[in-house]
Amino acid sequence: MPGSDELYPPAQYGWGWMLLAIGILALLVVGAWLLIVLTRPRRTISVAETGGYPPLIVDVLSQLRTEYMARIQQIETDYRERRLSARQANLELSRVVRTFVNEYSGLEAPVLALDDLVARGVHPALIDAMGRHYYPSIFRQGPPIDPVAGAEAARAVVRSWH
């Protein structure tokens, strides 16, 4: 084989190419950091609002209970002042109680039928309220059940839900 037996060293890259590669890597790192920082969810509770202590889960749950007790009271008041019919009041009470259960425990109560709730073994207070007050008032042909009793059943669900 003709040719020389002399070996040539591999070609070396210049410093300019190395600086360009380092610059591109630095831009990628900074871009990833900005993406993470700018897309993180914001905290809605500040430390100043909680008196310097982080919020406790118990406080959030008691606030949720207070909020839903107020909603139940508003529905009862609307019924007593004739802004809602008995059937409408029981329908609203059913929605409020189911939404409370959903927000409190994550159970998809607003979209589950009574049989589904029974099959999942939910708290007896919810089953009792749905079966004795809301379902008969909403679906039965006869006169609806008194929403004041339904409101008291809703309060029992909110107080006793675990």
Describe the structure.
This protein is mainly alpha-helical and 162 residues long. It has a domain at 57-160. 65% of the residues lie in helices and 0% in strands. It contains 6 helices and no strands. It has helices spanning 15-39, 57-80, 86-105, 114-119, 124-139, 147-160. Helix 2 packs antiparallel against helix 6 and helix 3 runs antiparallel to helix 5. It is rod-shaped, with a radius of gyration of 32 Å. The protein starts with 14 loop residues before the first helix and ends with a helix.
What are the main properties of this structure?
162 residues, 6 helices, mainly alpha, 65% helix
Compile the SSE list and pairings:
Blueprint: H1 15-39, H2 57-80, H3 86-105, H4 114-119, H5 124-139, H6 147-160
Helix pairs in contact: 2-3, 2-6, 3-5, 3-6, 5-6
Report the mean per-residue pLDDT as an integer: 86
Number of helical stretches of at least 4 residues: 6
Poorly predicted segments: none
Instruction: Estimate percent helicity.
Output: 55-70%
How far is it from the N-terminal to the C-terminal residue, by CA?
Answer: 89 Å
**What would you report as the Rg, rounded to the nearest angstrom?**
32 Å
How much of the sequence lies in strands comes to: under 5%
